Structure formats: structure tokens, C-alpha cells
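User: These chains co-purify. Model them together.
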Amino acid sequence: MNHLRIAVSGLHRGENPQPGSSIVSAIRLAWPEATVVGLVYNAYESGIFAGDGPDVCHAMPYPTAGLGSYLERLAQVRAAVEFDWLIPTLDAEIAVLAGAGPQLEKLGVRMMLPERELLARCGKAGLPKLADECGVATPETAVARDLAEALEHAGRIGYPVYLKGPYYDASLVSSPASLAAAGGAILADWGTPLIVQEPVAGTEFNVMGLGDGRGGMLGHCAVRKLIISDKGKGNGSVVVSDRRLEEITARVLKHTRWTGPFELEFVRAPEDDRYRLLEINPRFPAWVGFPALLGANYPAAWVEWMTTGKCRTLPVLEPGTFFLRHQIEVCGRMDQVSSLLATAPERNPINKLTNRTA
Amino acid sequence: MDPNPTRLDDLMLNDRGFVFDPNTGESYQLSTTGLACLRSLQHGTTAAGVLAGILEAQEVDPLTARWDLDAFFWEIKQLGWL
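Assistant: Joint model of the two components:
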């Protein structure tokens, strides 16, 4: 492979960690000399300052500003530092960028994302129908265009319910008043629709992997959450091997003919021992660095596939191996932050403490 | 009672009685006797055979052993191992 030059977003690893930093680390494991450009939305995204983080970072407009603004800024970044590939890692970015491959290619940047139509089918709003088509159970879910509809759905499903935004945020609400408050906040941040979902108590499982676009997989890794944060994030998970979970995952992948990274989120209720599909994420999860450390480097396989067309299957992790999320401090300097806050491309990009430049 | 070879075979045990169920991600700590029983079942021993093994290895009243073994079987059945 020629010298890899790649841009990655989603570098923050706080309470709600994003996948980008793990992807950058995994790329560095495979190609230590790769040029990695970080695309960030906040000067304090912790991955900017990680030891194996990007060589250079640039600030981007929020995806909610629209595709035009995003592409305009990307062109400026591309003029400042050359890169050939883009891995968007955040749901809101993916929603904006899906279908924008031709526009990106005009900028000299390539990426691989599922088709817009498939994303819509797999999104939170489309999930019940897709799950039904795949013969997979899912919690009772209703899509609301506004607060009034959300209140109606919640009344029918029965409180408490989860109220979710189109991309992020989920609040467990137990009354119409709390639904109205949480719904207002979600609408202000992320817009419509609001998703009202029956809460299902049980054990949470996640399956991540790479779809081969023909209905199969290059590999997958299934884990059970061991430690769950206040925000519902798996701060520790153990690899499991359950044929039922594998079979459900294979069924979803086959039905969607999924291409590229995915994460399926499940809950298994003790009452009936059934897996219910909660979400399909069209990207690697934040824990993708875990299998990479054990020799199943999904981001590297994905990059290799994108850049060379070569598909290779990934090793299966031994059940019983686990990860724990371990918070550490990273160091920065205010001049790095001030550089990032400057949005014009002619101004300085921020360089790492090592002063490596792209 | 016939053991369920699939689920039992999947269980990962060590000599200290630690059990990891790869199907569920749950882990358990067994007593020495529980470990011996589970290993017997993994080797295809029937319930009567497991009881006979306990009576042979330990000085225990047969009724008490039977009672405890039934309770053990009930528990592992709840876990889907039998």
C-alpha cells in the first residue's frame, strides 16, 4: 500500500467516548507511519492530545450546518494538509455524508459508507420495520414528529418510556411532564423525529463487525456489557459466543447486505430469554480498539479493503477475554487550543506536542 | 436427567471452580463438589452416576447428597446448562 493519508473524526474519549481515537490507534498499529488528520468539533476533544493521536487536527463545522458547509470546510482542510481517505465516525456526520461520495471525490477524498436508503432503514425510526423483516424482536417503538405525538405514543406504550433523538440522547421519562422537558431538549439539539421506546430491562449485548456487502461478514465480535456507566455506556465488556446472537446478527447482515463497519445493540430480558435489537449503528463502536489490541484489527481491515480492495477475514476473539475502560490524563498547551479555534484554513492547524507535521 | 452436551461443553472451567458461560457472559464460583459434579456431567455422566460419584468420594448420608444434588441440578437447569 502507498503511504496512507487518512482523516478521522470523533476523537473525544470522555464519559461518552467516540470511536475516532480507537480507530486512529488501530490504524497506527497497522501503519505506524500513516499520516492521520483529525477532524474535530471542539478544541478539547481529548484524542487530539493522545500520544498516538492524529498528526494534525482541524476544526470542522457541526454536521447540522449541512453538507455544503461541511464540504466547503473539508476542501479548506484538504488544501492545508493532503489526505486521500475519510472515515467519519459520528452518526450525525454519517447521515450528512451518506451519498456524498461523488462530491468528496471531486475534493480528492474517498470514503465508504452505506447507501442513504439503507441508513434510513436501519436508523432508529426505521428499526422496528427492519427488525420485523429480519424476524428479530425489538422493543415496542413509535416515531413522533413532535412533542404532542410523542406524548400520545408514550401514553399508549405506558410510562416509563425511553425518549430518543434521531442520532444521540436517550432519556428514561416517567411522566408527561418529564417527557415534555426531555423532548424539548432533544428537539433543540437534534431536531425531529423523536423516538418513543418501551424500556426493556435485561442484560445488554453488542456485536460489532464488518459486513462484506454481499450478505456476509469479514468478522464480528460479540460482547456482553459488564460495567455500565450512568450514560448507559459499556465501560467494560466480555467476549461471548452465543449461537443465537450470531445467527441473529448474520440474519440482519444478510437481509441488509451491509457493507463496512456496524454495531448491533441488543438487550436480553430474563423473563423470556429473547434478544431484542435496540439499535444498528453504521460505524465502528468506541470499543473497536479492544479487538484490535488482541489481533482482530477491524479498522485496519476496513482501511485495507477501502484502499486496496483486498478483503481479509478477521480472527475470532476467545470468549472470556474482556476490556475495561481506563481513563487517563492527556496533556495539551493552550496554544494548541487557540490554533484549533481558528477556523480559517490559512491559519495554523494544531500540531501534536511531538511537532510532527503532515 | 440427560445432560445438555452443547451448553455444558461450552462452559469454561478452571481448577479453582471458576466458571465462565460464553453464551451469556456470566461467571460463577463453584464449590469443589459442584465443580466435580459439573465436570462429570461434561463427561456425559448421568445424574445417577454423579450421585454415585459423590457417595464414593465423600462420607455423606445418601439422602442428604441426593437432596443437595437435586438442588444443584435445579440451579444449573435455571442457567440453561441442563
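The interface with chain B takes residues 203, 205, 223-224, 226, 238-243, 273, 319-320 of chain A (CB under 8 Å).
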